[in-house]
Amino acid sequence: MPKKSTIVPNLLRTSLSTLERLNPAASAAVAERLWFRVGTPPPADRRNRHVTDPGRPFTVTHNGHDIHGRTWGDQSAPPAYLIHGWGGWWQQLSSFVPVLTAQGFRVIAFDALAHGDSGPGSLGGRCSTVPEMAECYHAVADRWGTPTLTVAHSMGCLSVIWAQRHHGITPDRQVLISAAATTSGMLDVFCGALGLGTPTRDRLVERFRRRMNRPLADFDLLPLVAAEQADRHLPPALIVHDRDDPMTSPIESEALAAQWPNSDLLLTEGHGHYRVLRAPEVLERTVDFARVT
Length: 293
Prior knowledge:
The chain has helices at residues 10-22, 24-35, 44-47, 96-101, 130-144, 155-167, 183-194, 198-212, 221-231, 250-259, 280-290; strands at residues 56-62, 65-72, 79-83, 106-110, 149-153, 173-177, 237-242, 263-268. With 293 residues, it is α/β, with parallel strands linked by helices. The relative contact order is 0.14. Keywords: Hydrolase.
């Protein structure tokens, strides 16, 4: 889904706005295709610009398509997984690799289907869903073992909780950074980026329900967390958000921390949605939180 208006071409915004005035049903059909679209990743040299160690490559097949990833550290060490967000790639979390391997973890990172270097998603090409991202995490965890630690970013946080709820993957500890907690918030960003109003938004919600066979609200993070807490247990969590994040709200992470027993909340400033993944205070706090004893 588009992340903010600055990356959406003005021609597309103008065209969709005009189409909405003439035929909201048609603009909703276009918006639905864009909602599930991941987008084309930058060239490999840009994705790798913060990578200091390329690791050991691996491939896992899911639904006939290849998930490509990397591992670092002692292969017998406790596994720590790095989970990118919607439209992301594993290299965005590469700053965690050296600090976690130094603490005795085996680090596993991968591109979900339709993302990065991995194969197409179930909807074709560069399109995917949160359940599919969770299934990719599940497939990789089947290969490398139950996570001792999981570090997730943005929509990756939702996919991790979805995997815990629907696939039984429960890390001993997890770090949730810049979590996209509510579908209404995600929809606000999406429609705002495309210049779409209520007529298209309402129809898009209904189209989503028909495609996914469940309402959009089923993908809200807070109810998923509450259900998981009631049925099983929630492992200790470090919840991180930057106050200057323009894409997801720190207020939602504060609400998540308030609901999550045995959680710590770290609010940073000046890093935004992506630089927070390389912020020294986030890396240091993650090490303290997840240190192997």
